[in-house]
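Hi P.,

Sorry for the delay on this. The queue was packed all week, but I finally got your sequence through. Input first:
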Amino acid sequence: MLFNSYIFIFVFLPLSFFLYFYLLQKRLVTGAKSFLVFSSLFFYSWWNIDYLPIILVSMLFNYVVGNALNEKLHKIKIDKKMLLFFGVLANLLLLGYFKYMDFLIENINFFIDKDITLPHLVLPLAISFFTFQQIAYLVDSYRGETREYDFLNYALFVTFFPQLIAGPIVHHAEMMPQFSSRWNMVKNYKNIAIGLFIFSIGLFKKVVIADTFAVWATAGFDTATTLNLVEAWITSLSYTFQIYFDFSGYTDMAIGIALLFNIKLPINFNSPYKSLTIQDFWRRWHITLSRFLKEYIYIPLGGNRKGSFKIYVNLMITFLIGGIWHGAGWTFVFWGFLHGFALVVHRIWKHVGFSLHDMLAWFITFNFINIAWVFFRAKKWEDAMKVLHGMFDYTNIVLPPHSTSVFLSSAHTIKEIVVWLSVGFILLLWFKNSYQIVSYPKLEKTKVLTIHHAIYFALLFIFSILYISLSTYTEFIYFNF
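Then the structure:
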């Protein structure tokens, strides 16, 4: 079930909202939480009910291990470090089996010239996200920062449907106190208004903007056999904008939906293409993943504490892991390597004391990100090389309207695509993001939405709903990770 589908918007979400608060109104708090867990598991099972036992077993295992890591819950002395190692390893093995087994066997076949049959495992939905979230829970439990004695609460922490499929990756301590607050057990019309407003912005980003750019990105990467310079840049920029508005749209929709239930999810996306450095980009893009990588990989490796060379090594390891987390393929590994290397260069640059004018700094940063996305998007290494070759083949410049590439044979001309790209740049660089418009997450200081906000919400929502009817439902990019 997709956030951008009619059945979710007009059936699942309203029913979940009204029944949850009806149960709370009857003071059936346990019943309300149980209903929300059931709804979330139903939402999760909509794609394939075969996924359900995996997440249930994973939750039960991590709940037991997390409680065992809390020494106040047992009288038998346990080596907590070994227990943590066992818990984390079990989570990684589960993730590795489903996500990387085919990739591992493919490489074994290549290097030792064998023909081991691939299992062709289907990747369970959201396994990367709920695995990382539960690993964080285990580490936090080991540190004594988290205690959860109620499996129902823990199940709600893992499965809460607005953030289950593609994040944000949340900490138990920042999530569960909100469900326990009596102020959050009644409908808050201010949160409802702001939630619907943010949701409508995200819906518009996804179905109108991201899915439009997806057509050209897909055709350029997957359909065209060759690309001239103009077409290659259109292809790369289309994907750069597609993934921005797709993931930004999902994040807005997740935060908006959670607000309906009086839950404030952490900011996960903060205008990353405005960044002047690659370090700033990672402070703005997929913020909760960056936080996880920093707190549970980079800092345990030594962080900034053991000299410059060790810092550079730690950065490279962290971003190689970040790359392979996104997908089982060498293109993802190389994408992670590129970002790790860029952060190393940035640190050396800062240490030497060099600086650039803001415009030049932005230009370099944005173009690096755009080029790196080519490897992230390409299904095969050859696809990445095709796009990159076209982007820098200055002997093959074919200007509109003479371009005849297959991916431009649709209803759109190159001139129309250039207009879309120009609008994309304007939206990215000069418009406020949804959090800034409503002062999220400091909602207590947010004024009641004005009539202008209401009109804005209505227009975006209605236009998006009509746009959905003219197209097909498409998954969010991060559902694949």
